[in-house]
């Protein structure tokens, strides 16, 4: 039987790799994303079993596998914690959970690198070739940066840290720490001395913190995607060190997908990756222009009349809708309008919310058909012919100063052109600024009215007021 184990393991890795790729392909569409995640999960189970088959046999150990008790205990504890936290996490906190899980993946890769380098340095394993040493060190460096960087990203998203932390000469200081980490990594490869290895890991972990602290909250979708790509790369490198095909394939797929997503997110914000990591948000400088006018309130009854007798309505959701858990009522409102013959669409900015796809998940949860959800590039030409645009919880992604004020911190970021609508209504709890921390000129426009209040409560009032139009018929 033992002679067949390597063949069974290789077959399991092949099947797991196919399921990873198949699952990722299905995740590309909201219609099939759920099943894609399930197929990829099955692949991971198969890969885990295959990895157990490749462990060195030990006749004295449980079922012939050394430390099987610890392995199974780790799987059980991790599985229970993931299940419980996944069931309990609010949809508004999903970006934070993604950041944490991504960091754990990077940390796992770094831990593998640490163990392998420690074994090589103490003689616990035969001296490897230069390729293995370099990849073990690179994987440890990238995984360490992804671990601490993701933790800082989580803290920023969760409101536990100020959105930006800067000091004079910060970029030069960070560059020096980065060069030190690379230098210690090179020294690790050349000499494999334990004090050097410890210094290398400490510096790499500090680098992840310093890289992420100055990045503003508006750039977090790009940062999360970048660290996702880095985690995949680190896992692939450490998979080569362990000669584990599943880790190599899974890490490569995640790294490639994360890189593509990072490019798409940066493009959607008209940002280069360099400017995200090393510059403040936007290319503007100087003092932003003053916004003239005043915010003009409106009541729910008037908004219902505007929308109920409109020909075209576009609904623009943002993170505030998620906080208010208003997506179900907003969909009910859209259904009421469509029953009256109003043409309704939902417009989604690529970086709406706190992570890519956040708003799409919320609308799918509420049952909004996918053919009613329009991307920014598709819907922007339609705003001039839109009678009413209803903005709920969105802020920076609809701010027209991104196009009009070169001194604005968000200048150059593509936005949803709701200001070009015939009428715009903004549901907002108060007069605060958005995640980028700047005032929104849309709220002061002549064709904009503000419906102040909790998103879910205001949506509920709008549903009741639309039903009451024409005597409830």
Set down the secondary structure blueprint:
Blueprint: H1 5-26, H2 33-53, H3 68-88, H4 94-122, H5 130-157, H6 170-191, H7 194-212, H8 220-242, H9 245-268, H10 273-278, H11 300-308, E1 312-317, H12 319-324, H13 327-339, E2 343-348, H14 358-366, E3 373-375, H15 376-379, E4 388-392, H16 401-404, E5 423-428, E6 448-452, H17 455-468
Parallel strand pairs: 1-2, 1-4, 2-3, 4-5, 5-6
Helix pairs in contact: 1-2, 1-9, 4-5, 4-8, 5-6, 5-7, 5-8, 6-7, 8-9, 11-17, 13-17
Task: Describe the overall structure.
The chain has 473 residues and is of the alpha/beta class. Helix content is 58%, strand content 7%. The chain is built from 17 helices and six strands. It has a six-stranded parallel β-sheet. The longest helix has 29 residues. It is an enzyme of class 7 (translocase). The transhydrogenation between NADH and NADP is coupled to respiration and ATP hydrolysis and functions as a proton pump across the membrane.
